[in-house]
UniProtKB/TrEMBL annotation:
GO CC field: endoplasmic reticulum
InterPro entries: WBSCR13, WD40/YVTN_repeat-like_dom_sf, WD40_repeat_dom_sf, WD40_rpt
Compositionally biased region (Basic and acidic residues): 45-59
PROSITE patterns named among the record's database cross-references: WD_REPEATS_2, WD_REPEATS_REGION
Residue segments, region Disordered: 45-70
WD repeats: 89-120, 279-311
Keywords from the UniProt entry: Membrane, Transmembrane, Transmembrane helix, WD repeat
Listed name of the protein: Transducin beta-like protein 2
Gene3D superfamilies found in the cross-reference section: YVTN repeat-like/Quinoprotein amine dehydrogenase (2.130.10.10)
Length: 404
């Protein structure tokens, strides 16, 4: 019995060693656990410390995020490039709807939707900066503008009142226009909204064309000389030729119709208005048109997204029809004009105004001179025509090659 009890009893020393071993194991496990956790947190902290500065370096401020990248993208998407482009005029806050050159081609007037009238000196078109004069229209807005023949005033159409208003202005020593102020309102004679106004370089008549096919012809005092029904569905545009002899209209039909304003040779009194010729060739309604100084060339833009250059140097008395020279452009635009010399073609369809070198006009001039050279009999005349051809080709090549 004593032997059995002695074999089954546990020694205190062995029990103490076992307990000590268990405690060491538990402590080791706890140590390893916390060490692993601490190491993991340290690694995460290090990772965050390495990543966060990188993120901070890459992350721009709120202003740069909302302005710089957007502006750069906008410039990339809206930048217009064309070999004939001279410059783009930027100052309007809304889409440009009206353009007009002064009769001496020293100024360009522009109007935009819900905006002021801007007057630009054309001598700065070839430069980088483009100064202008802003004329605010009180309690109304203008949707059309034309210069007077003497270059001392301009006319606008007031959208709300649907009348013509005359502004006079002065010029500074540097040529910039200043002190523009209203001096006269024409009586209201148009029943529907006016789509265009114009004034003859002779000062003999002024037109206001309304959307309902009617064109009212005034004298410079505001008295009505006559009215014309154009029968074009509705009118989009009308303008007086730079030569001051006739005016044209375009509308729902795909042609442009021109009418001559006739005066008595003896006393200069008004005589009659008669239709003289049409421009036919577009596949949709014509939105706008313009003629050069002597009315031998015309440019038209259509809803078919093209604009054409026309030879209008025809004998319309004997029913000779004009023919177009070239299809020139295929961007959507709302306004198109030429200066009187035919040097520039200016278009607008958004807030910017595009000033083009008239390359198509130079091509047409070269073709005309080449034909004259073939028929010229005198040697001196042929040589003079060849010099003109070479000069026109040189101008065209300089423009297309980017020369100043």
């Amino acid at each position: 019995m004593e032997n059995d009890q002695s074999t089954t009893s546990v020694s205190p020393l062995a029990l103490g060693g076992a307990i000590t071993g268990i405690l060491v194991l538990i402590v080791s496990i706890i140590y390893l656990f916390f060490r692993s956790s601490s190491s993991s947190k340290t690694d995460e902290t290090k990772t965050e410390s390495y990543i966060k500065p990188e993120i901070d370096r890459k992350k721009p401020t709120t202003k740069s995020t909302t302005s710089k990248p957007i502006k750069q993208d906008t410039k990339l998407t809206t930048k217009f490039i064309h070999p004939w482009l001279c410059t783009s005029l930027r100052a309007h806050s809304n889409s440009v709807i009206g353009l007009n050159f002064s009769h001496n081609d020293k100024y360009l007037a522009s109007v935009a939707e819900n905006d002021s009238v801007l007057l630009w000196p054309t001598k700065e078109f070839d430069g980088k900066e483009h100064k202008h004069t802003r004329v605010n229209i009180e309690f109304d807005q203008a949707n059309h503008v034309v210069f007077s023949p003497d270059g001392k005033a301009f006319l606008i159409n007031l959208l709300k009142d649907n009348i013509i208003r005359v502004y006079k202005f002065e010029k500074r020593a540097d040529g910039l226009i200043t002190n523009a102020h209203a001096v006269l309102d024409f009586p209201k004679k148009n029943g529907s909204p006016i789509v265009a106004i114009g004034i003859a370089c002779t000062g003999k008549f002024i037109i206001s064309a309304e959307v309902n096919n009617k064109i009212v012809v005034f004298d410079t005092k505001g008295d009505v000389l006559d009215t014309v029904e154009t029968h074009q569905g509705h009118l989009n545009y009308a303008a007086v030729s730079p030569c001051g002899r006739f005016f044209g209209s375009s509308g729902f039909m795909s042609d442009v119709r021109f009418f001559e304003v006739c005066f008595e040779k003896s006393n200069g009194n008004f005589k009659e208005i008669r239709k003289i010729f049409d421009l036919k060739g577009h596949n949709a309604q014509v939105l706008c048109f313009s003629l050069n100084k002597d009315s031998t060339r015309a440019a038209t833009i259509s809803k078919d997204n093209t604009w054409k250059l026309w030879n209008t140097d025809v004998d319309y008395i004997h029913k000779q029809d004009p023919k177009y020279i070239e299809n020139v452009h295929s961007e959507t635009i709302r306004v198109l004009i030429m200066d009187s010399t035919g040097k520039y073609v200016v278009s607008a369809g958004d807030r910017q105004i595009r000033v083009f070198h008239n390359i198509a006009g130079l091509k047409g001039l070269i073709d005309d001179l080449t034909e004259k050279a073939h028929t010229a009999k005198q040697l001196t005349l042929k040589e003079r025509i060849k010099e003109q051809i070479n000069d026109a080709r040189s101008k065209m090549n300089n423009i297309l090659n980017g020369a100043s």
